[in-house]
Amino acid sequence: MKQKKKMLAVLLSICLAAGTLTSCVNVTNEETTGAFTTAGTAETVTTAQTTTATETTTVMSEDTAAAEMTTATEETTFTETTETTAQTTVAPEKEEGFVYYSDFGAKGDGITDDFKAIKAAHRYANVKKLPVKADAGAVYLMGNSSIGDYIEIITDTDWTGATIIIDDRNVVIDNKKTYQKPIFRIAPSKKAMVNTDVKSLSKGATTIGFAPGVKCLAAIEDTTTRVFIRRGIHAGDGDTKREVVLLDENGNIDPSTPLTWDYKNVSSITICPIDEAVLTVRGGTFHTIANHQPKVFKYFSRNISVERSNTVLENITHTIEGENDEGGAPYTGFIRTYRCTDVTVKNCVVTPHYIYGNTSEKESSTYGYDINVNMSSNVRFIGCTQTISIDDTHYWGVFTCNFARNITLEDCALSRFDSHRGVYNVAIKNCTFGHQGIRFTGFGIFTIEDTTVRSSSFLLLRNDYGSTFDGKIVITDSRFEPQTELYSTSELFRARNDCTHDYGYLCHFPEIEVNGLFIDDRNASTGYKGIYILPAYTDKPYYASAKDSTRYHTPETITLRGIVTKSGKPYQKHEALCLETQFFPDSPNHPEWGDIVLRPGGHYDYTTEYRFSTVQ
Questions:
Q1: CB 74, CB 202: distance < 8 Å
Q2: Which of 3, 104, 275, 506 measures 20 to 30 Å from 188, CA to CA?
Q3: The pLDDT of residue 185 is above 50
Q4: 347 and 315 in contact (C-beta within 8 Å)?
Q5: Lowest mean pLDDT, pick from 178-192, 277-291, 344-358
């Protein structure tokens, strides 16, 4: 029998070199268990293996404007040589039925590069469908061998009691984009499929046009149309029109993720099957030693990338060292979700990134994020906090999301919630946001309940994307502590759109309903006169009439109930709402905005109707 096991172990090693690990293990089944010894296996086996395999991963495309990151699939071929030595006995602290990193040679001393050993452990666990545990007290180093590679997780993983150091000092910005690879990729059990048969889709459609055969998240893209064409210091040509929806087996679109765009040209629909079982990844402290690259907008990943639906991340801490005024490239987000649904991030602690100062490419601060929700739906953050004060202005906002659906934050304390490229439906409850507050663009319903904001404005509709939210904002029993020393004015709802820029879509100021908002302005700076309810006007009329593609649509109703200020300051001169009908003042010099000249004999007929009511 021993001879048979030895032969099978050799066969397995040969199959590994041929890239057929799964089929070989399935054939040999329990007979090959000795080839990889897990906790609970008393037999000692040393296996040297050389593996050449092709794996599919996702990498970030660059956007010099921001960190919100479109992910594309690319093929990466790597060759590794790993010598692993299993343990002869089961250590008392190890539990049977788990794969431990030390079983595959990880030293955990904080000096040895353990990346390949940890990857080998997960590769075995993925095939055998076994959970993974880090060794308590171990300090694992992700060193040079991790550059351009990643570890795939498809089974429950517990890092509790361990520290994982991600050393980025030798990671460079290169044409292979190795800096955009994750360290850990939480992967779906089934590969994505691409459909190119559907040619068009209409906003509000109830079906996708074909039956995918599985419950899935569908990523729709039109590469011929640009949206979110950014304005200002980070101006760019925008992103391809895209969004995600949830489908059943027959292709019916879930009402919670309706189509928000019209697609005259559908380039592709990527079908991402949903894993029904919940996968849990928990514990551990991750410590990033920051990169030393030039201060340019090339965003690093080197993170945990969640690309599997029904995943829970909990009790994970991320810290950072080495960021200072000498610079470095920014980070896209240590915890990141992409093309998945029903993800919960619970009781995790993140770290905001240091603001370096001006860059060589743009007159703006270089920064990064530690949480990034991208092309995902139904993502919940519960009890998440950060290591540095949410009011420390030396550090950038910690949270961003793009093309996301149905985001929930509960019991969180973070420096910022932010959506650059459109979020559909957000629910925030019992949270506190620091100096960068709540900033967003998007669609649907945005609810805020029992939440405190300590910033210059309670809500900021991002003016670089047109200050647009096509939907309704509902605020209930919340608190605003205006930080008037940061900006010259404070506003409840801050927005700017002068109707001179085409963002790729019509812009909308949202319907707003406030049901209880306490403004604690006792600590306002000298010269404070009160709070603007709506955007503060200067010498420019921000909401003038313009051509159809740049017009800014205003809501029919704004309802304000129970707004109370602690200071009791009255409204001052110029703190009023002015409503007037006009074309944009510079229209005569812009014929592309339409002919506004009233010539002799011409006729001008324009009606403006104002409706006011009181709410008891």
A1: no
A2: 104
A3: yes
A4: yes
A5: 344-358
